[in-house]
Amino acid sequence: GYFFCIMLYRLYFSRHLDKIGKSFFSFVCLCSFFREDLSAFAAEPDFYDTLIIKARHGDCQPILNWLQNEQKRQPLSDREIADEIEINAWIGHDSDIAALWPQVAGRSLSVHTKLVAARAYRNLKQWQQALALFRQAGADCSSDEGERSQYLMTLADANFFKEALAQGKDFAQGSGSSRAYLTLSYIQKAAGLKQNAWQSATKAYSLDPHSIEAGFAYLDANDENRVIAGELVVAAHLPLSSMRQRQVELAQGAEYVRNALIPAQTEKNRFVLADRTLSYYQGLLLRYKKDPNAKADLRVARIDRLGGLLARYQMRELISEYKKLKAEAPVPAYAQNWVATAYLYLRQPVKAAAIWEQIINLSDRETVNLYFTALVESDQLRKAKALVAKLEQTVPYQTAIYGLPTRQDNDQWLDVQQMRVTLQQNQNRLSRGRDQAEHLAGTASTNQELAVELAGVYIERGWPRKAEDTLKRAEYLDPSNIGLESQQGLDALELQDWRKATLLTRDVIGRVPENETAQRVSRALRIHNMMELEIEGDKGINSNSPVTGAHDFNLRTLLYSMPLHYNWRVFAGVGYNNSNFEEGTGTDRVQIVGVEYRNRNNWVSLEGDHHAYGHGDAYGGVLSGWHDFDDHWRLGGSLERLGEHIPLRALRNNVTGSTGALYVLWRENEKRQVRLDFADSRFSDSNNRQAYNLLLQQRIFSSARWILDFSPSISSSHNTARNTLYYNPHQDLAILPSITAQEILYRRYEMQWSQTFEIGEGVYVERGYPTKAITNFSYGQNFQFNDALAFGASVIWDKRPYDGERQRNLEVSFNINYRF
User: Fold this and answer.
1) Cα-to-chain-centroid distance, residue 295
2) How close are the terminal C-alpha atoms of the chain, in Å?
3) Residue-wise burial string across 296-316, b where 16 or more C-beta atoms lie within 10 A, e elsewhere
4) Residue whose C-alpha is closest to residue 543's, from 146, 808, 308, 270
5) What's the Cα-to-Cα distance from 310 to each of 285, 315, 343, 348, 368, rounded to whole Å?
6) How far is CA 351 from the centre of its chain?
7) In 3D, which of 462, 494, 490 has the Cα closest to residue 699?
8) Which residues pair with 621 in a beta bridge?
9) Residue 792 near residue 745 (C-beta atoms within 8 A)
10) 3-state SS of the chain: helix, strand, coil percent to 5?
């Protein structure tokens, strides 16, 4: 105002009053323009700063719009360019930075701005431009760890691995910080050195366990290298998403399952990991079921949990859960492998083999062995043989191991050789199987499993003492091995060494009750300790034989007690014999009581009989037994009063008698044996009968389902009395070669259904009568339901001469053996 008044005063007293109006107008306009320009100049910094502050709070678009408009009016200042680059970096507009930089590259921008632009180019994977800017900013030799880290990682991104690794190692060793090792881990991962990257990430995390960046890098490196240990502890301190948290939890659960499936070092702790695994999954399932977003992860947890159930031998629950999962969607192959193992353990080998047939990987040694076992136990021997043939072509004897100068023995090759032995056993080619097993055991004397397998072949061939020696020699390797002790228990049962078998069985079943071999010997001992019922008999259908009579019926039933003090059993039973003869009907009713003693190498039975055969009460008895000298020789005999050597027709006519019998048995193996019998009977009518019998058996063919034996027999008898009321040739000789064929119709573990054919054609020579032919034929079926129940029946037809006349005989025989 003061300035304005002075100007008016001077103008008023001016001589050029006519110019006052023009000057005043010009002055007012000048002041108005000056005021507006001054106001704008004063207001511009506040306005720009306000926009910058808004950008820092997340509202970046106003300042970017202002800078774009300002750039159209006039070139931007270095500060404005730097701000535009920085703000675009904040909101991830890397392409805008890349578009702007060529226009301002010649400006004197700060190191920080160049670093921001370099990171933008790196984000756009324009590695060369990024490296050039990093170098301009001095990041390649900067003391700032962040800048150098960005540069080194970009080197790796650009595939300059040699340079990046060298500088990265120097950076890590020189700095020793967590960031430096994270940088080195990044470079190593880019170069494909996953294990080295994991080691560097682990080092970085150990240096700064509270670093979120180090924690995430450690988790990622673990995932790359399938290392799970400790991830849950790391994840607990990281801001993970719920999905990522579930991934870590599932990975940890899968690691628990893998560890649980590894055999434990001690039997006592064999289920510790399995129990921990199932407990862990129980918690996961409870949480995931409540989370609607975790449906996929819930299914993964349920599938992986199957492995924990397998490790805990909860096979039935495993199968039940598998069926539920399969009804919802297909189950992955690794879980199907567990399911097949469970089916095999539950003695359902057909289902197990069907699963493995779809998913089998011949390089997976354990799975291949189980698949072969399933094929054998389901009687699919052709497929098993084809599998072995395929493996023999692909599995070498030795393999080369990287880093070692010499080749190493291939364990899977040995598995294939053992499969061959098993095939020979199941194809009834025990001689070949023995040769192969002896060769394997002899060339690998420190392999206890091969010795146990060889002992099993010996037992099948009927050589339990030889098997015992083999198992005894194998004890020095590991005397408490479950497979060894189980086989020793089975061998002890064959040797009738009941005390030893009991001790061994108690040990293995007490230590590992879930083990299959332990269960096998336990089952065998349990069957031995049961009561036993034996029923056998025959019924004549059409006969005119003077020995058996017509419409004869014979039955004998014995009930044995459980073993008493290991070696003793008492028994009781009844017998009934009935037949029609020319002179009338003969009947013998027998009540039996007795005691049996069995120990190693010996068997003795003493029974007392009460007979009622129509001529008052009579008492008889039988003392019989045998002794084994070794695996080949047995000597046996009996003393009888009113025993089986006294025919019913003699009793019908009140002729009694006693018999002494002796036999010698030589048995080479399951294919060949010879038995020589001698019996001397003294009848009450002064007749003395001596009988001889020689029976040979030679196997001429055997396969998985067929067994063919040639069994010639020669028998002879001599009687001193003439014209007795029972058939009593003065002297006779019978030669009867026969062929016996057995076919196995069905077989599954202890269950077996078979049929037997026997046909024989020979001659019968009786002193005083012409020589005539003997014809014999029989057909029978036998069914063994399990190791506790077996029964069978046969139809027998023969035609042979008696006193010169050929007589026919058609009968049915049956037998039942039941343990309970």
Assistant:
1) 29
2) 130
3) ebbebbbbbbbbbbbbbbbbe
4) 808
5) 18, 6, 11, 15, 18
6) 13
7) 462
8) 608, 641
9) no
10) 50, 25, 25
Distances (CA, A) of 97 to 61, 82, 85, 215: 15, 10, 6, 31
Adjacent-strand bridge partners of 759? 739, 777
Q: Which range, of 235-249, 418-432, 616-630, averages the lowest pLDDT?
A: 235-249
Go through 399-438 and write b for each residue having 16 or more CB atoms within 10 A of its CB, e for each that does not: eeeeeeeeeeeeebebbbbbbbbbbbbbbbbbbebbebbb
Closest CA to 590 of 562, 612, 607, 561: 612
Rounded to the nearest 10°, the torsion over CA 164, 169, 172, 173 is -150
Enumerate the H helices of 270-332 as residue ranges: 272-290, 295-311, 315-328
Q: Output the CA–CA distances (angstroms, integers) from residue 769 to 453, 587, 725, 783, in the order listed.
A: 57, 31, 19, 43
Q: 667 - beta bridge partners? A: 673
For residue 792, the model assigns a pLDDT of: 97
The amino acid occupying position 684 is S
User: Nearest to residue 609, comparing CAs of 651, 649, 551, 547?
Assistant: 651
CA gap 168, 185 in Å, rounded: 9
> What does the mean pLDDT of the chain come to?
89
Apex 412 CA angle, 408 and 418, nearest 5: 120
Rounded distance, CA 661 to CA 641, Å? 12
Strand partners, 690: 680, 718
Q: Write out pLDDT tens, residues 554-604.
A: 999 999 999 999 999 999 999 999 999 988 999 999 999 999 999 999 999
Sign of CA dihedral 209, 215, 219, 225: negative
- For residue range 150-190, what is the model confidence (pLDDT) as tens digits? 999 999 999 999 999 999 999 999 889 999 999 999 999 99
Task: Check whether 70 has a pLDDT greater than 90.
Answer: no
The single-letter code of the amino acid at 236 is A
In contact, 609 and 619? CB cutoff 8 Å: yes
Rounded distance, CA 38 to CA 385, Å?
103
* Pairing verdict, β 688-702 and 706-710: antiparallel
Distance CA 391, CA 278 (A): 36
C-alpha 145/C-alpha 616 separation (Å) is 118
Q: How far is CA 213 from CA 191, 201, 210, 220, 367, in A?
A: 21, 10, 9, 11, 41
Pairing of the two strands 584-599 and 672-683 = unpaired
Q: What single-letter amino acid sits at 719?
A: N
- Residue identified by tokens 């005691």 is 595
Which amino acid, one-letter code, is at 132? Answer: A
One-letter identity of residue 357: E
* Measured distance CA(715)–CA(776) in Å, rounded: 15
Residue 734 β-bridge partners? 715, 764
Among 772, 760, 695, 696, smallest CA distance to 729 is for 772
Is residue 741 within 8 Å of residue 706, measured between CB atoms?
yes
Q: Is-contact 731 692, C-beta < 8 A?
A: no
Strand stretches in 532-642, DSSP E = 532-543, 550-560, 568-581, 584-599, 602-612, 617-628, 633-641
User: Three-class SS of residue 485?
Assistant: helix
Rounded to whole angstroms, the Cα distance separating 272 from 279 reads 11
Which two structure tokens, joined as six digits, stand for 492?
A: 């002890």
Residues forming a β-bridge with 815:
536, 792
Structure tokens at 486: 């189980």
Q: How far is the C-alpha of 390 from the C-alpha of 171, rounded, in Å? A: 54
